[in-house]
Write a structure and sequence with these properties.
This protein is α+β, with helices and mostly antiparallel strands. It has helices at 3-20, 28-64, 94-104, 140-153, 225-228, 231-256, 288-297, 315-319; strands spanning 135-137, 161-164, 169-175, 207-213, 215-224, 273-275, 307-310, 322-325, 328-331, 333-334, 345-347, 350-354, 367-370, 375-379, 383-387, 396-409, 427-430. A seven-stranded mixed sheet has the order 6-17-13-7-12-11-10. Strands 1, 2, 5, 14, 15 and 16 form a six-stranded mixed sheet that branches. The termini are far apart. Residues 64-87, 119-134 and 390-394 have low confidence and may be disordered.
Length: 433
């Protein structure tokens, strides 16, 4: 039995005893037995940590001084991983692990044993590298950092409604409401003023199902030998590159995706409300009336969380828009007010943010007014891996991040108000001009 297996067995017995007397006084003889198990477990912990540190130092010494040692046994022959499973970070940084992968690719070097102790969270045990492919998993903690940054820093990703999932998809129940007319609200619920002893007709809400199924978004990056020579720079650079590309591609799909192997974007949503251009409006222009009508078509409860997004080509037009009143012309587009006010430009008091995903000036989608809290997404934890062979002839190392996710608007139809004929929606676009 290995040291780790002995430690696992001792902890299992200790936890079982704790559960048996949960909330009750443990008898004296049992307490002595428990104390003995814990003392032995502490000794095992010290031995395991010492062996792990020795193996890491040996590998570092072999790779760092240029000494050659015998090749590591193949994955098929390796009977036991060099280090035990741990939820603590194995490498001090992303760059340090990339340097270890680089050293593992030098013929005759013994790979850093920590590389074989990186856990694939989908599997039940440790994940061994495939020697013939030269691939290693990146530490899950590093993948989680990329995942968190993607969702925290994107102007759109940080605003959508997101759920993590464990399977390949999810079915979300939603209210089937297309109209606010009596008898249609909440999919069919009706309230009555009833006279005393009168009767009312029973009603019930209607529901539909939103199906979200994970799509695979893959990102590849290459690092040169020169970059690999500097671990701190490499770790920061590669992580930033993955974050930027995954965020860009996902957010672009949230706006422009067709739903075929990728998220369904706002511009292709059945619930999108498109405001027509003004009569005789010149091509590639933006008018105050366009903005006012877009505002009027936004579902009122969504106005407090909706934002304007636009292509930067639109900005010169936005800056010239005014509303005339008895006190003079009032700018429609307000620039950022500094740290004491809002950090964003605003239109009707709502943030106005330039993004690359919007179409160029004059095309449908050059400016959008959207409540992204009514755009729903699912995702799984990112997985990252590296190969030393894919770009071998170019003196480069390949890094791959896989992000599985999906998204679509929560609304599947624009809403007809109780009074009035203009439909409303949390997603509003301006037609092509």
């Amino acid at each position: 039995m290995t040291l780790q297996e002995r430690l696992n067995a001792l902890l299992a017995k200790a936890n079982a005893l704790k559960s048996e007397y949960d909330g009750k006084t443990i008898p004296a003889e049992k307490r002595e037995e428990l104390r003995g198990w814990m003392d032995e477990a502490k000794d095992l912990k010290v031995q395991i940590e010492a062996e792990r540190e020795l193996e890491a130092l040996n590998a570092y010494n072999s790779a760092g001084t240029g000494r050659k040692s015998s090749p590591a046994p193949s994955a098929e022959k390796r009977s036991e991983p060099a280090t035990p499973k741990s939820h603590e970070p194995i490498f001090r940084s992303f760059g340090e692990q990339l340097m270890a992968i680089k050293a593992a690719g030098i013929p005759g070097n013994t790979p850093d044993p920590r590389l074989f102790a990186v856990v694939d969270e989908k599997a039940s045990g440790l994940n061994e590298a495939v020697d013939s492919e030269g691939g290693f998993l990146i530490e899950p903690d590093r993948s989680k950092e990329i995942f968190r940054e993607v969702h925290a820093t994107g102007e759109i990703m940080s605003r959508v409604k997101a759920w993590p999932v464990s399977g390949n998809g999810v079915k979300i129940p939603a209210v089937d409401e297309k109209s606010r007319a009596t008898g249609s609200r909440m999919g069919g619920v009706t309230a009555y003023y009833a006279v005393e002893a009168g009767t009312v007709t029973a009603t019930k809400p209607g529901f539909r199902t939103i199906n979200l199924e994970l799509n695979k978004l893959m990102t590849l990056g290459y690092a040169t030998e020169e970059m690999l020579a500097d671990a701190p720079f490499l770790g920061a650079f590669m992580q930033d590159a993955f974050i930027e590309e995954i965020r860009f591609t996902a957010e672009d799909a949230f706006i422009n995706g067709n739903g075929n192997g990728k998220p369904l974007g706002i511009l292709n949503a059945p619930a999108l409300v498109t405001v027509a251009k003004e009569t005789d409006q010149a091509a590639d222009t933006l008018l105050t009336a366009n903005i006012e009508k877009m505002w009027s078509r936004m579902y009122a409860p969504s106005r407090k969380s909706a934002i304007w997004i636009y292509n930067q080509d639109v900005e010169p037009q936005l800056m010239g828009l005014v509303r005339n009143s008895t006190v003079g012309s009032i700018p429609l587009f307000m620039p950022p007010g500094g740290l004491s006010a809002t950090p964003y430009s605003t239109i009707f008091g709502r943030p106005a943010i330039a993004v690359e995903y919007c179409q160029t000036l004059g095309d449908k989608g050059d400016i959008l007014f959207v409540d992204f809290s009514r755009y729903w997404t699912i995702s799984k934890q990112m997985q990252a891996s590296s190969s030393i062979h894919v770009r071998f002839v170019y003196d480069e190392q390949t890094f791959k991040v896989t992000y599985r996710h999906d998204g679509q608007p929560a609304w599947y139809s624009a809403l007809t108000p109780k009074n009035g004929s203009n439909t409303l929606s949390p997603y509003v676009a301006l037609a092509a001009r």
